[in-house]
Predict the 3D structure of the following.
Amino acid sequence: MCGAAARTREVQVVDDVEAFPGHIACSSSTRSEIVLPVIAAGGRLLGVLDIDSDRPAAFDGADAEGLGAILRATFGELEGAWR
C-alpha cells in the first residue's frame, strides 16, 4: 500500500487488507488501511502517511479529503492526489 501510494502519488484506500494482493501487514489486527502520498509544493515526494484500522472499511473519501487538508497545510500541495 505504501509503495503504491508513493509510486502513483494517489491515495490508497483498502476496505479489506486480506483481499489486497501483496499487502504487508504492520499488525495482525489490521483490517483496513488508508495511505496518502505526502508531496511538497514543488512536486517532490516527501513520504507517505499510513493509517491502519482494526475495522473493515474504516476509511472513505471524506477521510482522504480531511487528511489531505491536514497534509497540505503542513507539507504543501498534494496536487489533487485523491481526485
About this structure: The mean pLDDT is 87.
